[in-house]
């Protein structure tokens, strides 16, 4: 099967970018990243620079992969990472346009690879808990009911791929940040710092990302199927901190 690929090429964040067109022979069962591997083999064999892109586990777990395919983060299949998008699922697999995740917070490193360290800064600001060190507590020392544990695990499933940011016309990261806030607020060991965490994460969002668009595009591309309630959690948790702080 002949595939025409329009790939974004850019040497670095400050260099002008451009689309370059390539033609490759692929098989229908290939994944999107396998198509890129094949393209790079062809480019290297002809003495050209390969297309830079990020990937790691290729099992939809790590969140390292992430490109824009025909204007949609990750690809045409909803809630599926780039590594698990296959040609058989494309409306027209014979032609595709590949770009990096487009967001002001994600500067291009090279070609399809972007710097997503802005998400790391959200975690550094408040996506963690402080616990006493020493001997580990017994697993059943503090009981957590099943529904609470399941809810926390659902929001902890966010893989931090950044597709939600690229899908939002404002470049917001509320789905990502809200997932972290809800995950940690469900469990007792994260409640002590709940208010400070909300304030720190909200402040980092304001610094690096845009405001929520309220359209919900983020949930449509999220590989972890994070619920839109995570978006609402950002303002709710911040307001909770403000009200409690005033009361004190």
UniProtKB/TrEMBL annotation:
Pfam families: Fer2_3, Fer4_7
EC number: 1.3.5.1
Family to which the UniProt record says this protein belongs: Belongs to the succinate dehydrogenase/fumarate reductase iron-sulfur protein family.
PANTHER family assigned to the protein according to its UniProt record, in alphabetical order: SUCCINATE DEHYDROGENASE, SUCCINATE DEHYDROGENASE IRON-SULFUR PROTEIN
Coiled coil: none
GO molecular function: 2 iron, 2 sulfur cluster binding; 3 iron, 4 sulfur cluster binding; 4 iron, 4 sulfur cluster binding; electron transfer activity; metal ion binding; succinate dehydrogenase (quinone) activity
GO BP of this protein: respiratory electron transport chain; tricarboxylic acid cycle
Cofactor: [3Fe-4S] cluster; [4Fe-4S] cluster; [2Fe-2S] cluster
Protein name according to UniProt: succinate dehydrogenase
SUPFAM superfamilies in the cross-refs: 2Fe-2S ferredoxin-like, alpha-helical ferredoxin
Listed NCBIfam families: dhsB, PRK07570.1
